[in-house]
Records
---
Amino acid sequence: MQSFSQRLRWQLSQLLSGELTRTELLWLLSPHLHLALLARRRATMIVNRVRLVALMFALLTPLWSLIDYMVFPFPLWFGLAAMRLTASAAFACLVVFYRPNGELFDTYRSLALLFAIPSVFYVASYTLLSHYQLSGVSAAIGAGYAFLPFVLLAGMAIFPLTLLENLVIASPILVAQAVAGSLRWASLDWPSFAGAFWLLLLITSVATMAGMSQLAFMIALVRQAIRDPLTGVFSRRSAEEMLELQFTLSTRSQGPMSLVFIDLDHFKDINDRFGHDAGDTVLKNMSVAVGGNLRQGDVLARWGGEEFLLIMPHTSQDQAVAAMQRMLALGFGMRPDGAPLTASMGLAERGADQCADWRMLVELADSRMYQAKSGGRNRMVTSEGEVCAPRP
């Protein structure tokens, strides 16, 4: 019997056929499996949209006080105006003091503040309005305050969020609606309240699907932008972004980070003898061979031509040497003439080599790769000048 997650993934695959891979479909459910590059770009987009929405609310929220002034008694108007100015100031602070930094935690905090400000305003204004007996136009304007939760939930649709994130954001708003209803327990019109709450749930569902659709589109675009079109591994541009991110994390935590520069041996000879199509096939087969033997967390990127970078976060030099010895023994695929494809490699590690930035790490690994070439190829050179030859 299929599990719930399997059934859900199958349903999503039918709705998004051809747009996402089976693995990427799971990214629509939770952010925990997202690639670091996707997480950073999504975090930046969400914060920018949070600031845009906050700016709109900061400007428009006080303006409604003019309508309140014409229809409400002065004490009620004054209380609502004070709440509006407070909310507007909070929205303005969100615009001024928040800047995208690519960190998901800060993104969640900005979203929480964006939805918390109007939620608190809604409960406070609903409480104040409940102390007045309004009629006619005043009652109609007062009833308009009850639509704020609908606006908030519909607003989720502009953010590329996962299913889990949408549920977490919507829950406090739905709870606020329930609290507001409980404050008027004795006089509450239960059929109207139940209908309104059901409509809120419906809007939540539609907004959630809209946000997940945005996320699916973003995943597809990011995949195209960060992957090398020939081999399917990461492109040089995305590798530079990932190197900067991983180097920063490694420096902050004082943890290890290794980098291997890989250059395929005698690749020009393949193009000259068998043609560029054969060379492209060799590059694709090599990417598959290496990619199938990567450890979890390792990243392979095409640096240019027949040059590749292997980024190994949380990996010491000794661990990297052991991993690459296994890869040397397994090989990098076959040449068109049936001979084994070999590579020359240079290894650098952030802490052991005392690199100040990721560019220095790449240059050092590149230099050692040339040492491996001059030393006979089909081997790897480390910081100690050690040549790690393939196992017999």
---
Amino acid sequence: MELIPRGSFIMGKSEEDQAKVLNAPTKTVTVRSFYMDDTEITNSEYRQFVEWVKDSITRTRLAILADELGIES
């Protein structure tokens, strides 16, 4: 994980908007520091991870329930 430091930037119209297609007013946006993984993954890889976590949580909950009910596997 990499620490991304806090910072500010100007959002909206810019001097580079030659075609004048951006008509939003400018404003300064400040972002707090945060951590970001330094390894790129695809949306598909992330979806597989999320499904694995959901499945893992469900299995754990079912095991706890079975234990509470006295059911052996």
---
Amino acid sequence: MTAAEILKIRDARPAGPPPRPASQPLRVERRVSCRGALVIAGQRIHVGIAHAGATLTVEAADTTFRIHDGDQLLTEVPRTTVKDVARFKVRKPEPPRAEQG
């Protein structure tokens, strides 16, 4: 495009700086299922039934997920998905459903 054509573009403005990658790994919370697994970025990770119902912290790096219970590292697993992390906070458990009878 020529300079004259660029000036004719409506609401044009210069681009901002490119996004920078995070200097630290992304930290999110996940609640462990009743079977001892959690899901992050579409990847199911089994941490053990002893942690069922617990809220754990997950560090999502480029190639690994690190699962922490407080300050203790439980496991580090390789990342097998390329999806982005969609949820950052853990959801509260659903209330018990009333039985219909």
---
Amino acid sequence: MLPRNETNRPAIGYLGAMQPRSNISTLKALSLVYLASASAFCVAIAINSGTRIPGAEKMVALAAPLAKAAAATLNEKAVQPSVAWAVRKDKELFAWMVRLNPPAALSPEKAPVAVAKKEPAKAPPRLVANAAPALRPAILGAPQKQVAAPPEPHLSLDLAPQAPEPPNLTPAPEVNPPDPAELTRVLSHMKLSLTKELYENFDLFLYVSKADHGPWSQRMYVFQKQASGDLKMLYDFPVSTGREVPTPGPTGRLLTTNTPPGYYELDPDRMYRRYHSHEWNQPMPYAMFFTWEKNGYQTGLAIHGATGADISLLGQRASAGCVRLDPRNARLLFQLIHKDYKGLAPRFAYNRRTATMSNDGLLMHDKAGNLQFAEGYKVLVFIENNGGDNIVAALF
């Protein structure tokens, strides 16, 4: 519908009344200007083309003052009154529109009222199952930056409530146990692989051979330090370490499956009875992750139980990089470590420039040369590519 003015008349009628009225004198002036201009134009064309027109000069002389007088009359009687009329009517139209819709500045009673913006209610923080816990400080008392979870493996925790488990201190039966003579060799090799600081400050030692052949290959040997200071072998388990070749994941993307050799501690903030790898879509029962940061990321390297068909592959390279155990042995080791080996453990050296934690067995010292400790587990994991058929381990 069209807006209406103060007299309740359609706005179009108001606008129609704004049109100017022409008078006879104006029309005459316009006609004279047109005729004089047309005559002068025709004469000019003829002269320019070389045509001789009798009396042409006289016609031009008569037309020029006539056109000048007509133009002056037109300016006085039509142009100037029309411009003045248009300006006046423009002002009247603006005033009329203001009366119909007064702006807030001219109508204080309708000025906008400031209203407090209502912020949407924030949902309480949700516990994200696959969020990586913060790293403990690893640089001489200085707080360490929070590190994002690595792109692989991507893990999520099953937070379902769990009933307490009964003690399980019986390892899974083994078809082909190792030769006792080889166990003696492994024990001797483990002692030689430890520095004095490592030997004195850890109480349980896990030696893992990632070799693909040899009498020690694909096994874990568990040594307990006695009160006398000697090492005693508690268990030896068949394991599966990484396949060491790029392997397609569930999505088809090639993923690395390496188990890096070196010395590692267990992360007290990442020990779970039930875990699941989204990247490989596989369960990881009794997972114990390492406190190893590489290039600014917490790595997903862990010891955990095998499941399904992977149990039959123990004793050969078959994992995505973690150290797999029979689920019964993983449970035994998990309970043993969690129950008996909590305490202060030395911290591994940390390279600020590369944001990488040492896995070469180098420990952190303060300026006075004293070892730096943190709450954790007094358990040292040593992974080596040595199958027992070569005295010098090939570390790569």
